[in-house]
Write a structure and sequence with these properties.
The complex is a heterodimer. Chain A is about 0% helix and about 50% strand. Chain A is built from no helices and 11 strands. In chain A, strand 5 and strand 6 form a beta hairpin. The relative contact order of chain A is 0.34. Chain B is mainly beta. Chain B is about 0% helix and about 55% strand. Chain B is built from no helices and 11 strands. In chain B, strands 2, 4, 5, 9, 10 and 11 form a 6-stranded mixed beta sheet that branches. Chain B has a 5-stranded antiparallel beta sheet with strand order 1-3-8-7-6, with no helix packed on it. In chain B, a hairpin with a 2-residue loop joins strand 6 and strand 7. Chain B starts with a strand and ends with a strand. Classes of the chains: A mainly beta, B mainly beta. The interface between A and B is medium-sized, with 31 and 28 residues.
Chain lengths: ~120, ~110
């Protein structure tokens, strides 16, 4: 069964450094999402992306965050200047239609640790 | 009021028990309801997906949606130790880009 893959599985970064998290969505999917899960808390929506632009973003997704689909397969989340509170699991998800008819499939996440 | 509420547990049951997991929600626009299972340090794995009200069964799992009460449930029959995980409810509204709103997650432990 096709999978969403995320790299790296664990990223340790000094506060203030830039970090890029990478995702390879399922190949025929068109809609892409990033979610965040701080340890012990609920999974939270960050941003959705379709047709090479952001469809919707949450309050968490401030100017420090950006997303990009640099080629036909990768979908990246960049945090420009990391803060301690950015430490979390980051999940990528994708679907082929966003009307709600298809459930989202998630990757196994990147655990981001900010020191 | 939180948009989606889910008792975080932990819930501990003996092997073979019937497990009932529940979520309530406040947004009447939600029409798509999902249950995900999450093992430690892994991504959410889709278990059940339902649209609007009604029941859906898949093996030992049954999902129920009651839109009039804004209440959804997941039942696990003949629970197994391998069912031990955190169960997340999630929901989305039609034509809102597919954004999922999650519950807190319920931690389930099935004891042999």
């Amino acid at each position: 069964e096709p999978e969403v893959t995320q790299t790296p599985s664990h990223q340790v970064t000094q506060m203030g450094q830039e970090v890029i998290l990478r995702c390879v969505p399922i190949s025929n999917h068109l809609y892409f999402y990033w979610y965040r899960q701080i340890l012990g808390q609920k999974v939270e929506f960050l941003v959705s992306f379709y047709n090479n632009e952001i469809s919707e973003k949450s309050e968490i997704f401030d100017d420090q965050f950006s997303v990009e689909r640099p080629d036909g397969s990768n979908f990246t989340l960049k945090i420009r200047s990391t803060k301690l509170e950015d430490s979390a699991m980051y999940f990528c998800a994708s679907i082929n239609e966003a009307g709600g008819d298809q459930p989202q499939h998630f990757g196994d996440g990147t655990r981001l640790s900010i020191l | 009021q939180k948009e989606v509420e889910q008792d975080p547990g932990p819930l501990s049951v003996p092997e073979g028990a019937i497990v009932s997991l529940n979520c309530t929600y406040s947004n009447s626009a939600f029409q798509y309801f999902m249950w995900y299972r999450q093992y430690s340090r892994k991504g959410p794995e889709l278990l059940m997906y339902t649209y609007s009200s009604g029941n859906k069964e898949d093996g030992r799992f049954t999902a129920q949606v009651d839109k009039s009460s804004k209440y959804i449930s997941l039942f696990i029959r003949d629970s197994q130790p391998s069912d031990s995980a955190t169960y997340l409810c999630a929901m989305s509204a039609y034509n809102q880009g597919g954004k999922l709103i999650f519950g807190q997650g319920t931690e389930l432990s099935v004891k042999p």
